[in-house]
Each structure stands twice: as C-alpha cells, then as structure tokens.
Amino acid sequence: MAYSTNNKLKYFINDYWDIFLGIASIIIAFYFHKVSSGGAATLFAAIGIGALSLSVSEIAEILSERLQEPYGSFVLTLSAVIVEIILLYIILLQAVSDPEVVNTVKGGIISAVIVDMNVLLGLAVFLGGLKFTEQEHNKETSSAYTTILFVTGAALLVPGVLGLGKHSQSVIENASIAIAVLLMLFYIIILIFQTKTHTHFFKQTARSRIFRIKRKMAEKSLEEVQEEDDGYIFEKFNKLGLILSIFIFIAIIALGAEVFASDGIKLAKEYGISAGISGLIIAIVAVSPEIITAIKAAKNDEIQRVVNIAMGASTVSILLTVPILMALAYASGIRFTLNFNPLEIGALFLTIILAWKTTDEGHTNYFEGISHLMFFFAFAIIAAYY
C-alpha cells in the first residue's frame, strides 16, 4: 500500500511539477517586486514563465491530438508563439518611457532564431549523437525550412538597407509595414504547403506524451502505464476545457512577464547589460520548454522531431511574431521598424547557412551539434560587447 502511494505521489510530481513551480515562482516574483528586489524578482519571473510555458506546450499537444490537420499543427504553433509575443510585447511597452527598449525587443526576435537553431538544435543533436552515434531525419524538412528562412532573412534586410541609403524614417516605417504584411502572407502559404499539399516533407514522429509512457514502461507493463497516464487531469478535459486551460496559463505567464519586463529592463540598465545579451536572455526564457522537449526527443532517437521543432519554431518566430508585434506596437503608439543591426542580420544568415550544412544530408552526429553550440557562444561573446 505504501509502495502504491509513493508511486502515485511520484507520478503526480512528474505530471504537475511545472504548474506548481510556475505559479509559485510568479507569486514569489511579485513579492520581490513589491519589496524592490529587482534581481530576485526577475529571476523568479523567468523561472515561472519557463515552467508555465512547458505546461502550455503539453496541454496544446493533447489538444492537437484530438484535432484533424491542419488544426493540430496550428494549435501547437500558435500556443508557442503566443507566449513569445506576449513576453516581447510587454517588454516593448517599456519603450513608452525608454525608447532604447525597442532595440532589446529586436534583439529578442533574432535571438529566438539563434537560440532555436543553435542551442536547441545543437544540444539535442550533440546529446543524441553521443547516445546513437548518427541519427537520421527527413532531409526534405531541413531543405524546405532553410529555404523559407533564407527568403525571410532577405526580406528583413530591406528596411536596414534603406536605412543605410539615408532614407527618411517615414520611408523605413512604410517599408517595415510592407515587409510585415509580406511575411504574414508568406506564412499563410507555408501553412498550406506544410499541412495540405506537402505534408510528407514534414513527417512527424512520436509526441512528447509518448516519452512519458516510455519512461514508465521501464517499471510497469504497457496496460498499467496507460491506466496511470489517464490520470493526467488535462487528458480528461474536452476541447473547450483544454483551450480555456491554455488561455488561463498564458494569462498567468503575462503577469510574470510584466514583472520580468519592468524589473529586468531596470536591471539591464543598472548593470550595463547590452541589448544583444538582453535579447538572448529573453529568447532563452521563451524557448526553454522547446529545448527540454527537443532534448527528450533526441535521447529517444526522434531527431525528426528535433528538426521540426528547431526549424519550425524559428520560421514561426519571424513570420508570425514580427507582423503581430508590429501591429501591437503601432496600436500602442510605439514606433517599431525592422531595421535590425548588422550583427543581428549577419548572425541570422550565418545560422541559416550552418543549419543547412549540418542537416542537408538527412543525418546528424555529435560533431554537428557541438558546431552549433560553438557558434552560439561566439555570438554571445560578440553580443556582450557590441
């Protein structure tokens, strides 16, 4: 009886630790915010955002299993990007009193791609390569995504090039709006391509819920595991209940993001942290749940899932985040343009080239993973002093 109780407690902790940690951390963050302890408030807000983002991704994945394509993929993509947009938008609101914050937000947009394609992909490929020597994936996936990212990167060059040509601010703003519209249209086409006409290019493998079952299979039979797994409360919710749960957690994340933005920006100015490093920190907080999921997938020899997560998230981070963030900025009276600095654009293109070279043959190894990590650390050093 005691053994059964201990097992139930163990699985309860495994299933719900992220929710308890996330809510508790955000409450603690508010406490430190009230007592003017900015460093502690920022740290606990970041932990809370990361933990609850993981909860959102798990609930969205359960919902996606119950929906027919393309809606399943749409839910997974949207739930991930909403958290990133909320975090960046709340930080952007600080630009009303401090215009320099806009540069931090721009850094956050590009850094999300840098982190996805180098930290997430690099860590997962490195750890998977150590365990399995070489892992295979659908090379059409990386080919399609790197093409999309090249085109997207080229589009983001336009406002910056106009800025170098001594054009007026109004011209750069108009060009930024036009590029944002193009990016949104491009995303719609890609969504059709991915979920309707060329689904075989993005063939997915096991979902993260299966990883949990695999771990439990080491101790129990499959039938017992399935009974245990049915105890996960969100599995019992209907579609509306799952959607409401996602929005409730996103609302709590928004509260944590408010503390993270206000105290984090003050902390960055106080310690002279560059916009580049601030953007990287924001990206790591936003992407942390995806990193955890990708590492689990790589260790389960599901490198196809890793490629889908890393490259798919990078694509959406630009194609959806940029136009939506621009619309929100202008609605809030904040002037936001897409004239990224040379370091950001250069790092974006070098990342795309590196990802193309390490994935184009349809197999990966630990050397390719460490190459991505080396690139990330080199970028972080430059960003710290840029």
From TrEMBL:
Primary location group: membrane
Q: How does it sit in the membrane?
A: Multi-pass membrane protein
Q: Recorded GO terms, molecular function?
A: potassium:proton antiporter activity; sodium:proton antiporter activity
**One GO CC term on file:** plasma membrane
Entry keywords, A to Z: Membrane, Transmembrane, Transmembrane helix
Ranges annotated as spanning the membrane: 12-32, 38-59, 71-96, 108-130, 142-162, 174-193, 240-261, 273-295, 307-330, 336-354, 366-385
Domain Sodium/calcium exchanger membrane region residues, every copy: 43-195, 243-383
Q: Which Gene3D superfamilies match?
A: NCX, central ion-binding region
Task: Report the subcellular localization.
Answer: Membrane
UniProt name for this protein = Sodium:proton exchanger
The species is Candidatus Sulfurimonas baltica
Q: What is the lineage of its organism?
A: Bacteria, Pseudomonadati, Campylobacterota, Epsilonproteobacteria, Campylobacterales
